[in-house]
Each structure stands twice: as C-alpha cells, then as structure tokens.
Write a structure and sequence with these properties.
Elements: H1 5-10, H2 14-30, E1 38-42, H3 50-57, E2 61-66, H4 69-81, E3 87-91, E4 104-110, H5 119-129, E5 130-141, H6 143-146, H7 165-174, E6 177-185, E7 189-196
Parallel strand pairs: 1-2, 1-4, 2-3, 4-5
Antiparallel strand pairs: 5-7, 6-7
Length: 202
C-alpha cells in the first residue's frame, strides 16, 4: 500500500530523516555484513537513506525498490545529484520481489512491512532473496502507533491482518531468522537485526 499525501510529507521531515540516520547507525553497531556485498533496501521512498547505507555498510552493489513511482522518480533525481551512491532503482511489490533467491547479502527495511496487506508473504520474500547467513535490518511500527484514535483518521494502512510484537517475532522465526539484536518500545515500535539461518535438508 502506497503512502498517502500526509505520510509522504512526514517521511520527508527533518525529524524523520534525523531519526532514520540514528536507526542506520544502530543497525551498523548491531551487525556488520562483510563489506563489498549486495544490499537491498525495500521501501526506499525518495532515497534519503541510500547514502547512509552506502557509508555504513560499504556494499559493492546497492539496490532499492519502492511501490510508488513518484517516490522513485524523486530518488532517481537524488541519485543524479549524488552519483557516488551508485544505487539501482526498481518499482516492485514487497510481496513479489523481482529478484532471484539468495540474490542479496543484506536487506534493509525502514517501516515498509506494516504497509503490506500480506505482510507474512513480504517477510517470506525477504528471506527468499537473502542468501543463507544474510542479514535483515528491520525498523517497524505497531498498530498502537498508526491505528490509534488520532492517526487512523490521518494515515492510510491496511485494516486487516496487522501484526503486534508477538506476531512479528513468531513469523520472523518461522521464516528462518535468528535474532541478533532487538530494541522495542512496546506497543509502538521495534528495531531488529536477524540472520537467515541455513535451511536444514529434508
């Protein structure tokens, strides 16, 4: 589900950008994939985090996807202004990622999962496109923050199949992630880093 006009404004504000930078720094302290790998950002928006991700993790290949073509156009403009970032952009649905299995060493998502109606499918897609041993860096918001009495009238999110902390952690483990670090402000917010465990042979 795409952001509504108010949400597009919010994600461009200075406080949100500042917080996102702190999140990247937290992620880099929590786990560090080997440099020179392949990193995917899902829900990149206008691309503010791409340079921070480049500097924090040093990937050889940086790919970013978003469902909203308007946001991607703004990200493309940003990349033209800062060519050293060197990211590849694509329009993609998080529940049907157009990449081969095991294509990435790390995946980063800043609050995209709660916008996906079939979030379990999107989480499974993250696991699919990661190589065994790859890292998932997650920032997410719980319904108490975005579906309370005030925000539910201002923001647009799927109404059904929402996840709280226990749901997210259960599905996280079910698709094969081992938690390396986690910070939660229940019932509102979570940061987590997981490593995809090798699949056991049948």
């Amino acid at each position: 589900m795409k952001l509504n006009p108010l949400e597009r404004i919010v994600v461009e504000t200075v406080p949100r950008r500042f917080w996102q930078l702190q999140v990247v720094r937290w992620m880099a302290r929590a786990a560090m994939p080997p440099p020179g790998g392949r990193l995917l950002e899902i829900g990149c928006g206008t691309g503010h985090a791409l340079n921070w991700l480049r500097r924090a993790f040093g990937p050889q290949r940086l790919t970013a996807v978003d469902l909203d073509r308007r946001m991607l156009a703004a990200a493309a403009d940003r990349l033209r202004e800062t060519p050293r970032i060197g990211a590849a952009l694509a329009c993609a649905d998080a529940s049907r990622l157009p990449f081969a299995s095991g294509a990435f060493d790390a995946v980063v998502g800043f609050g995209f999962l709660h916008h996906v109606p079939r979030w379990q499918r999107a989480l499974a897609e993250v696991a699919r496109v990661l190589r065994p041993g790859g890292y998932y860096f997650l920032e997410e918001f719980y319904p108490a923050l975005y579906q309370n009495m005030l925000t539910r009238h201002l923001l647009v999110h799927p109404e059904e199949n929402r996840f709280v902390s226990s749901d997210l952690h259960a599905e996280w483990a079910a698709v094969g992630f081992e938690t390396l670090a986690c910070f939660e402000l229940r019932p509102f917010y979570v940061l987590a880093v997981g490593r995809l465990m090798p699949r056991k042979p049948l």
